[in-house]
Design goal:
The chain is α/β, with parallel strands linked by helices. The chain has a single domain, classed as 3-Layer(aba) Sandwich (Rossmann fold), CATH 3.40.50. The chain is built from 3 helices and 9 strands, in the order E-H-E-H-E-E-E-H-E-E-E-E. The structure holds guanosine-5'-monophosphate.
Length: 182
């Protein structure tokens, strides 16, 4: 069985693979210009951020390392608590950290993670997100690098899942409302 557009739950393609690739290349060049000569580490949260990070780091022509965290969130909305289930492999003290995100929605998860990372005394800490659902933001978060502003719809593909599936779509798509009701 093929997934993709033949699946009736998918509404339409919001961002094509080509549009994403062009934006990733652009973000990569901006990061190269800003981080040349620095000690860059890209961090993302598994599993969704892995896909963007893999493409982004290959468009950054600088020495860098990558590291990963995993979290679980429980509880609704603003009361939701985050637990780190896999921490970074290496210390970040004194390093230039770029937090790479697939999507920022309310911003609560990232806000928590930024607090945790800041306590580890990196030389700098910045955010690069592919997708920004900024109409849903509940906390004020500076975002240094943003790929696309996206509408308040449930998105799948390019790392984003529904029940673990569809991360491997090479584009970002919206689902029909009835598939995902908040
Ligand atoms: P926040 O704490 O910013 O509200 O939540 C961010 C996380 O919610 C993302 O890392 C992602 O896991 C999930 N998320 C937010 N919006 C979407 C979406 O449209 N589709 C999918 N698949 N996940 C989303």
């Amino acid at each position: 069985m093929k997934l993709h557009l033949s699946d009736s739950r998918i509404d339409r393609v919001l961002l094509t693979g080509d549009e994403i690739a062009a934006q990733v290349a652009d973000l990569g060049s901006r990061i190269v210009a800003d981080y040349a000569g620095r000690d860059l580490v890209l961090i993302t949260v598994l599993k969704g951020g892995l896909f963007f990070l893999a493409d982004l780091c290959r468009s950054i022509d600088l020495p860098l390392t990558v590291d990963f965290m995993a979290i679980s969130s429980y509880g609704p909305g603003a009361e939701s608590a985050v637990r780190i289930t896999k921490d970074l492999d290496d210390p970040i003290e004194g390093r230039d950290v770029l937090m790479v995100e697939d999507i920022i929605d309310t911003g609560l998860t990232l806000n928590y993670l930024m607090r945790v990372l800041r306590e580890r005394k990196p030389a700098s800490l910045a955010v690069c997100t592919l997708l920004d659902k900024d109409v849903r933001r509940l906390v004020d978060l500076p975002i240094e690098y943003r790929g696309f502003r996206v509408p308040d719809r449930f998105l799948v593909g390019y790392g984003l899942d529904l029940d673990g599936v569809w991360r491997n779509l090479p584009y970002v798509a919206t689902l029909h409302e009835e598939v995902w009701e908040r």
